[in-house]
Amino acid sequence: MGLKSFYYQSFGGVRKNLHLPYYLGGALRLMTPRWFTQSRRDALLHRFDELPASQQDYVMERVAYYNRLSEPVTLPPECPTLGEQHYAHRGYASVYFFDSYEWNRYFPESLHWAFAPGDVIDTFTVPTIVKSRPIEASKLNPNSVLINMDKVRHFMFFRDPIPFEKKENRAVFRGAIHSKPVRMKLIETYFGHPKLDILDTSTNSIYPSHMRQQGEMSIYEHLKFKYIISLEGNDVASNLKWVMNSNSLAVSPALNYETWFMEGRLVPGEHFVEMKPDCSDLFERMAYYDEHPSEARDIIANANAYCSQFLNKDMERLISLMVMEKYFKMTGQLPCTSI
Fold this sequence. Notes:
The structure is a single chain. Helix 8 (181-190) links the parallel strand 5 (168-175) and strand 6 (196-200). The protein has helices spanning 3-11, 19-31, 34-45, 53-66, 94-104, 135-140, 151-154, 181-190, 219-222, 240-244, 282-291, 293-308, 313-330, and strands spanning 115-116, 128-130, 133-134, 144-146, 168-175, 196-200, 225-229, 249-252, 257-258, 273-274. The protein is α/β, with parallel strands linked by helices. Helix 2 crosses helix 5 and helix 4 (53-66) crosses helix 13 (313-330).
């Protein structure tokens, strides 16, 4: 059993990830001199040349997906430099500082950038580093450049010990309703249904006490169910990644936003079970996969395989550095010898 699996099984995984190692790692990066990481940048980027052609194609495809800039552009003079970034950027949690600093520390702190921390659902008029972006709008507007941020909350991959066939034949949802129409529709229409286990985790919930849960439901408690409902909130659904890496089926309406996980590439019926935006066909979708367990297992296998591409730390580092390098090249701040 791995460290994460031991943590989730032993302590319930209520906090969902190992925060202490995450912050210790961030602190160690801050203690490493910037001149040292900059001196390593070329060597790390040159590892691309050592990859087989098929892997080079894969890397370039992902870099182009995250960073869609295709024409040189000049940043406005008011854009801050990397060296001006603060620990709590514009009031946002320090995770956005740590996760962006992990990669920008490889570049001179005199370089300029536009940076939008938080749950981003809009596009921008200038190239901007973001955690999330709207899927459809960003196909037309290339200015939202994705970097893997807030990953201590979003990127969790661990072993699910329960086979699909041995899970409880119901669906579960836990989440903060926060006046989100789809979430409100789900709980107000289906609360108390015997096939569902739904509770609101909002600290300021508008619902009566029997419809609320204090604290959070652990990940391993979720994994007892065959179906785990994943609903977008402020941007992407934070549970979609770990659900797709489990032996349960992720059930979600069509996706509107994406992160480093490339949610825009997920295919309904191949990676997750799609239901209508108002959740009105939820029981129909559940009944179908109850009757077709082999198709359910195929979706789970495809979802697990999709998640596996993010487990290679060396590959993720290379892609992240190339995304940032392309950003500074396309904004005219590094020599544009190749993209």
